[in-house]
Amino acid sequence: MNKMCAPKNQRGSVLVISLIVLLVLSLIVLGLNRDVVLQEKMTAAFRESAVVFQAAEAGLSQVERELTTLRDLSRFTNNNGFYLTGNSPDNYFDESIWASNSTAEIELNYSELTVKYFVEYVGVELNDGSAETPVLSNLYGAPETGTSSAIYRIVVRSKSNNGGSEKILSSYFSAGFSS
Hints:
- The chain has one domain (28-176).
- 34% of the residues lie in helices and 23% in strands.
- It has two helices and five strands, in the order H-E-H-E-E-E-E.
- The chain has helices at 13-67, 95-99, and strands at residues 82-83, 104-106, 114-126, 148-159, 166-176.
- Strands 1, 2, 3, 4 and 5 form a five-stranded mixed β-sheet that branches.
- 21% of the residues are buried.
């Protein structure tokens, strides 16, 4: 019978080299995994920022539609989001403005984000060429002669529920009074 005998001078060097190679490969994989996690976090933050911006734009559009239905300025009581000229909050980056009844909230059907706004009546544009305030003409097409348009400043704030992203949009809007 032939017995296979291990050589007496083997000391396990192949095993040690294999373990070192395995350790190096494991460290490379861990480093790459950290980069993947970082990329995933950046992508999630970018997506959240885009969703918050889209919610703010949707809120702005909704407020503009609401303003086109106004028949007079009776809703502008200098609280609850509607202000007469010069009475709106000055620093809309101040958190306390958005936490109080200085603003109104918009409910968007597809979003659970917090969207708040306030509107300031700026003045009237008389479409005969004269104006009480500087003329802002963002009307589509030529306005009818002899009509007037109210000019509003709208500030909308959208904030993610976890507070990670916030967008504030400010816009001027001109709308004719409904009759």
